[in-house]
Structure formats: structure tokens, C-alpha cells
Amino acid sequence: MGLLRVMMPPKLQLLALLAFAVAMFFLENQIQKLEESRGKLERAIARHEVREIEQRHTQDGLRERASAASAPPDADDDLVVIYNRVPKTASTSFTNIAYDLCGRNRYHVLHINTTKNNPVMSIQDQVRFVKNVTEWREMKPAFYHGHVSFLDFTKFGVKKKPIYVNVIRDPIERLVSYYYFLRFGDDYRPGLRRRKQGDKKTFDECVSAGGSDCAPEKLWLQIPFFCGHYSECWNVGSQWALEQAKYNLVNEYMLVGVTEELEDFVMMLEAALPRFFKGATDLYKTGKKSHLRKTSEKKPPTKESIAKLQQSAIWKMENEFYEFALEQFQFVRAHAVREKDGELYLLAQNFFYEKIYPKN
After folding, report:
1. Among 111, 145, 291, 335, which one carries the catalytic annotation?
2. How confident is residue 26, by pLDDT bands cut at 50, 70 and 90?
3. Is 353 contained in some domain?
4. Which of 37, 169, 188, 304 is buried deepest, with most CB atoms within 10 A?
5. Dihedral sign from CA coordinates of 267, 269, 271, 276
6. Using an 8 Å Cβ cutoff, are 320 and 196 in contact?
7. Which family does it belong to (predicted)?
């Protein structure tokens, strides 16, 4: 550069300096633009990466929510108990316990009210009922009760069946109670007019006169209720119905109690199904309305009336079923409850696990 200054005239030297300065300015400007472009590119890449991360998080969240929505509900929240109550077996007394506890234990109680108390559903109503019980999630967990005969859910392709419970009673005592209930009602709704109101004839007088309301055929009720929705179940005196009722009692019902030992039944249900019956035993013992329903004007039948009914084949079959249920209930109770100083108490857990492999 020094040599050029010597050889070049001053004007040319000035022009050369100006040209060099312009070139350097242009070069610096281009470099600055390149730096700005690189910064923009880096920011664009960073924003793209952030969006990708956000999208992954969103997709993960959606997958987690979808997985949670499709996951099965908690087992206790999906429980359904059906009590297909036999008339005049303390069914209202037991059902009132369920109503008293439903708010506290967080479940729903639904009464199955059939037209004219018909215990047999039409095939279309069977389908509707099964669909309601299995798919009506807003009502779960649920306790259904009503005078409906046993319904086999497996016939409708249901994988998870409801839990059945029930209570039965000595057949003659049940019939006597029902006879007077139709005439005088009970202390639960004393003002309600009953179907036979005004008929003052006693049960003994009915038996002596061979009346239809106390006929042996009227004993045929607990067997068909447990037998179910087969035509043979309702053929009075059917041996097949008796055997089917026994089969259902031990295979389809979690627990069947007897009216005469209702407190034990309530206690065992509380132990087995605390989601529904936690607090039921204390309520049964101390509640003001749970177990106070009594048929009005009921007179115990004479030995003669009882003996006459016991001569019938229908009584023998109904009594056989009752004795079968009683023996099964007492067997279950013997392995669940003990008595000490006049008080009943539940046995503690009597099994445990050992030899668990593989070792951690």
C-alpha cells in the first residue's frame, strides 16, 4: 500500500482509499446480515423444537387421558347387588337398612317395581334390565331390589354378573304373615288399604274351610323365586324347579339368609360387602325404622292348621328348600361368626400367603 502511495498520484490514492473503505463497509454489512440470518435461523429452529416438545407432551397427555378413560373402574365402584326379595320374609326391613346406608357408603338404591308385582319379566324387559344393570354407570355402585324371580345374566352374554343376595322364611310362617298382611297391612304404612281389607276370617278358619288364600298352592313361592324365568319353575309341585332352585342358591347367590336369623345375615354381609353394608349391624340393632315392620292383627295358627298344611306335597317341597337354605346359611355362618357371652363377633382373616417366588 505504501508503494502504491508512492507510485500513484494523490487523487488516485484518495479514490483507492474510498474504494477500500466502501468495500470494507460492504463486507461488514454482509457479515452483519449473515449473522442476523443465522440468528433468525437459530430462533426458528428453537421454536420448531419447542413446538415438537409441546406436541409430544400434548400427545402424551391425550394418551394418558384416553388410557385412564378406557381403564376399568375401581372394583368397588363397579359393584352391583341384586336382592330379588321374596314377599313377607322381612324384605322391607332389610331393604330399609340399604336405604339408610346408601348416602353414607356412597351407592345407589333402585326399586324394581313391576306391573302388578309380577315376578316374571317379559323377554324384552329382561334384555332392558340386563342392559341397565351392566351399562348404567351413573348408577354404580348399585343395590337393586324388587319382587322379581332370579334372572340368569349369562344367558345375555354378560361377562361380569351382579351379586345376588336373598332372605327366605319358614314357608308356613311366611304364608300366615302374607295372609294377614293382605287384610290388615302392617305398621310400616298403616293407612294404606290392602286388597283383602274387611275380610275378618282368621287363617285357621280359612284352613278349616279350605279357602283359596291359605291353600297349599299358595306356599309355592320361594322355590320359583330362586328357580327363575323358566316355565317349569312356576309349575306348582315341580321337582325340577326344586332342584334348580337349590342349584341357583348355592351357585348364583353370594349369601342367602333366613328371616329368623336376620341379624347374623346382616353381620356377614357387612363383613363381605363393606362398601354397601358398613355400619349395617349397628343400624339393625339400634335403628328406629330398619327392622320394626310387623304385620298387624296376625294370629299364630293352631297345630291343627299347621298339620293340615304339612300333609301336602307342596309344603314338603317348599320346606325341603327352606331346610336346604337354612343348612347352607348355618354352614357359612359357622365359618364366619362366633358367639361369646351372648354376643356375636366375626372371625378375623384366617389365611395368609407364604413361599412367594421368585424372590426379589
Report:
1. 145
2. confident
3. no
4. 169
5. negative
6. no
7. Belongs to the sulfotransferase 3 family.
